[in-house]
Amino acid sequence: MLPTMADTHPRITEARLHPQLEAIFRAWGFPADQAAVSADVLTAADLFGIDSHGITLIPLYDELVRSGTVATAPDICIVRDFGATAVIDGGGGFGQAPSLQAVDLAIDKARAFGIGAVAVRNSNHFGAAGIYALRAAERGFVGLATTAVFQASIVPTHGREARFGTNPIAFAAPAGRNPPFLLDMATSTVALGKFKLYARDDKTMPPGWALDQTGRPQTDPNQALVDRLMTPLGGVRESGGHKGYGLATMVEILSTILAGSSYAPLRAAGAERNDVGHFHLALHPEAFRDKGVFESDLDALLEALRATPPADPAQPVMVAGDPEYAARERRRRDGVPVPRSLLAQVQGIAERIGAEFSLAETAGSEPPVSR
Amino acid sequence: MLPTMADTHPRITEARLHPQLEAIFRAWGFPADQAAVSADVLTAADLFGIDSHGITLIPLYDELVRSGTVATAPDICIVRDFGATAVIDGGGGFGQAPSLQAVDLAIDKARAFGIGAVAVRNSNHFGAAGIYALRAAERGFVGLATTAVFQASIVPTHGREARFGTNPIAFAAPAGRNPPFLLDMATSTVALGKFKLYARDDKTMPPGWALDQTGRPQTDPNQALVDRLMTPLGGVRESGGHKGYGLATMVEILSTILAGSSYAPLRAAGAERNDVGHFHLALHPEAFRDKGVFESDLDALLEALRATPPADPAQPVMVAGDPEYAARERRRRDGVPVPRSLLAQVQGIAERIGAEFSLAETAGSEPPVSR
After folding, report:
1. What is the pTM of this model?
2. In whole angstroms, how far apart are CA A217 and each of A37, A183, A205, A306, B317?
3. Using a CB-CB distance cutoff of 8 angstroms, which residues of chain A are in contact with residue B156?
4. Which of A140, A347, B81, B318 has the most CB within a 10 Å radius?
């Protein structure tokens, strides 16, 4: 079998990736604790195979820092606290540090009250939503995380202009002998990365993924990448697209309206910050079930799902999280494949901002791994 | 234009529908307060145009009562209370009465703690999920309601047997000058009713809605109605079906695992009750925002969405809930269209169980309304 493109990428171990990311966030001016948290979240995404939310974010984040859209020494503080809920102001920085604080506060509240919810306002891109939900599950709590997105890409059903970002929903729950259930999904039909794969392979996309500027299905991936008009999950109205549109709206209500952030299409022209909002929720299984029973019942559910007779015996039924855990095992062993072009971009950024660049390829040290 | 089938159905006013439903629940043996709540929920669904969850449920409910699968004098009680959360045991009856109690308790807890969550176990079919979420929104709270379903119909991605019911998610939020946002969606691609429409019109269904017994797309609506193998929202894997599958699992975790109910495919053979679980959550906007600001910000969001340029000027962009509110306005004025065959079935049931039947057509009193 010919190697896939990823097989020819340099492999970066977790032990090298994390300090490089941390050094970049510090060189941008972030305090050490915030830089560490941002590096944690991006590294976790790369290990999980969520390539769109790991080191690949560095060029976008650099743009945000250079344009002043993101504050690099944000003052993160709790601005409301009401029993089992709170609101955190992210101070205009990236979303990782205030979101981690929000998850931990929601967990504390869930421990005390059975449930806790913490909204974050005045924030920015927070990385992969699943990392926050998983943090709750790894500590024994059911976790839910949603975020708004500052760039619109999802088109409401029957419309022809984008009104939402990919507005993801992440949900995680702790099991016993299984790793936590972990759902992390954009409320669009497919990710932008899928358009890129079709463009690379010069293939026509199925109708129902993207729209053209008149609101009709767009099957040319190159034009879809220019227009960025994505259908909500379900595609067109007849195949349930209004449900994905409804879910994207639900995410916007939880992340933006509840937190008191800006709805991107209505953000004041010339506003200094993106003012993105997030929502984090934790539920304590022991408030509902005897100790350990939630986890063993979830084991039984997950195992029953994996035991569903498959349509194709070569492709067994999985549960959400299975691909991510498999990727993490593989990448912890073999390293994270990073395209040379991206490494060069990151090197350029590191050199400009005065961060040490430690991911230069050493001949023979990390040869391409063939699987 | 030829009249649609619905135009030829008798129209039943809310004032006649509700007492008829209530009389049937009472004749089955339900206490007066529970019968009234069940009638409220079914009537509300019929007014909203959710025809699958109104009076049409009476024959199914009658089967459940006759088979002893549902308890007709259930003892509903709070079995756990942990600050902002609680668990209610439905006593084996229908889900309406314990769910209404759960929503109201979640609201009380949200008023005190900012958020409240109440799970219901040992319950049964609860009607349309949206009615519960809307109850919270009508009282000024953000509401979320989910339920498991005792009959499996959704097939996990890559599988060929059903492992979930239609596992709906309902979410509602209070606005100011607009009616509440109201999302009520099954996590399947389309409803079974859609298969029925295609069967009636002798049309081939698009691939991606249903599967055959080998796990391949089923486009014959008649066979799809026999097999009842539905795809999760998104359809096949490539168009995002794994996301709908993940959402259905999330609903099962919240409704069944957290509540301590039975996951239908693992329910003990010969179990007397269906032991269905539900999950109800309420959030207090005033715990997050100054009084009135959540509602006015939601107005701005909803109005911005409706103002999205439409693909077809004749079909403006709507928000979730708009079709339901329009149906309610129409049906409050004109009555609920009920097929004669269904009325005859309900009459047969009423006569057998000793409930007065009050929906007999009076010539000329409620002529078909043409729109």
Report:
1. 0.96
2. 40, 28, 10, 35, 17
3. 305, 308, 317
4. B318
How many whole angstroms separate alpha carbon B275 and alpha carbon A332?
43
- With an 8 Å Cβ cutoff, are B318 and A253 in contact? no
Q: Determine whether the interchain pair B249/A181 forms a contact, defined as Cβ–Cβ distance below 8 Å.
A: yes
Tokens of A152: 């619109």
Interface test with A, best of B141, B261, B317, B319 (most A CBs within 10 A): B317
Contact assignment for A82 to B113 by CB distance below 8 Å: yes
CATH number of this structure's domain B1-67+334-371, picked from the four choices 1.10.1530.10, 3.30.2130.10, 3.40.50.300, 1.10.10.10: 1.10.1530.10
Q: Nearest CB to B260: which of A82, A112, A288?
A: A288
Alpha-carbon distance A17 to nearest alpha carbon in chain B (angstroms): 30
Q: How far apart are CA B176 and CA B293, in angstroms?
A: 9
Q: Do B249 and A206 touch (CB under 8 A)?
A: no
- What is the spatial distance between Cα A343 and Cα B322, in angstroms, rounded to a whole number? 49
Q: State which CATH number among 3.10.20.600, 2.30.110.10, 3.40.630.10, 3.30.1370.60 fits the domain covering A75-186+231-306.
A: 3.30.1370.60
Q: Candidates 1.10.1530.10, 3.40.50.10320, 3.10.450.540, 1.10.10.60; correct CATH number of A1-67+335-371?
A: 1.10.1530.10
Selected for mutation to probe chain B from A288, A299, A306, A318 (highest B CB count within 10 Å) is A288
Q: Which residues of A touch B221 (CB under 8 A)?
A: none
Element (H, E) at B226: helix B221-227
CA A75 remoteness from chain centre: 23
The conformation of residue B73, written as its DSSP 8-state character, comes to S
Q: CB within 8 A of A81, min separation 6: which ones?
A: none
Residue holding tokens 């084996």? B92
- Provide the residue-wise pLDDT of chain B in tens; the chain has 371 residues: 344 556 689 999 999 999 999 999 999 999 999 999 999 999 999 999 999 999 999 999 999 999 999 999 999 999 999 999 999 999 999 999 999 999 999 999 999 999 999 999 999 999 999 999 999 999 999 999 999 999 999 999 999 999 999 999 999 999 999 999 999 999 999 988 889 889 989 999 998 999 999 999 999 999 999 999 999 999 999 999 999 999 999 999 999 999 999 999 998 888 889 999 999 999 999 999 999 999 999 999 999 999 999 999 999 999 999 999 999 999 999 999 999 999 999 999 999 999 999 999 764 445 444 44
Task: Considering the domain delimited by A190-229, tell me its CATH architecture.
Answer: 2-Layer Sandwich (3.30)
Residue from the list A183, A243, A294 with its beta carbon closest to the beta carbon of B258: A294
